[in-house]
Amino acid sequence: MASLRVLILCCNNFQTFPIQVCTLANLQVLDISENQIQKIPSEICNLKRIQKLNISSNQFLYFPIELCQLQSLKELNMNQKNGRKLTRLPQELSKMTQLKGLDISNNAIRELPRNIGEMRSLVSLLAYNNQIRYLPPSILSLNQLQKLNLSGNNLTALPSGIHNLFSLKDINFDDNPLLRPPMEICKGKQLYTIACYLQRAEERDDKILEKILKTVANNITETSFQFLCQKLNLVTSEIDTSTKSTLLLSEKVQRALDRWKMKNRNLSTDALRDQLTRGLTMIGAYEIMDKITALQLFACTIKF
């Protein structure tokens, strides 16, 4: 038994994980799927050579954090088609840096770990039939990723930098309420088409934001500008003091808003626009808000 490398224990109605398995130091493949297991013992860390682990369709109360100790693991299957649905994944999942294949499909997971980008060896990520609402920015760091299946989730938008996943060959975003890009763009499952759409959308959003900033600069009063600076944490004194006295109000506002945009360049265009409109609403700049709304409505009528 000590030399055992492959062990198949699926469909045995186990209520608990057989602790004897943890003594098999040479074990490389373990399939214990289709059982009634709720917990994984900490002793599983003794499986120093384990490479493939299938624990799908069991009755786990939560993601077994003990698995994150398995540094040799390359494939993990936690597809819960016939098991209890998981609702979250731990941040510790990122410790599994050697993992190449991860299947977390058929669960009720609402979000991927923020640091999933640290799993840089990941080649295949299957997360279909969950409740994932958005993708964390770090997912764009998965440079080895070739297969990504996120069909049957609650995604409304894809990250504009998805073209950075240059190794990606097989993608599936079917059955999501996608707005950006719309579902018809994703049906062909062509990364290039999706990336082109998102790039054009981002460029258009940048132009619209610039027009919004210009609208604010040309229409805001001195008093309202001071209040807006407070809401956006803008420091007007940062404008070059040598030219400050000669600047028109519109120029001063434009410079301040450009500086604000630069300081918050890590935020998306949508986030910047939302932050600005909230600030304008809070200071009661309703006439400017009406102009911005009209600008956005006009922009929506233009196809690209």
From TrEMBL:
Residues 209-296 form the LRRD1 death domain. Keywords: Leucine-rich repeat, Repeat. Gene3D superfamilies: Death Domain, Fas, Ribonuclease Inhibitor. Pfam families: Death_Lrrd1, LRR_1, LRR_14. The keyword Disulfide bond does not apply. Residues 3-105 form the Disease resistance R13L4/SHOC-2-like LRR domain. SUPFAM superfamilies: L domain-like. One of its GO terms (cellular component) is cytoplasm. The keyword Repeat applies. SMART domains: LRR_BAC (SM00364), LRR_TYP (SM00369). PROSITE patterns: LRR. It comes from the Eukaryota. PANTHER family: CALPONIN-HOMOLOGY (CH) DOMAIN-CONTAINING PROTEIN, PTHR48051. This is Leucine-rich repeat and death domain-containing protein 1. It comes from Myotis myotis.
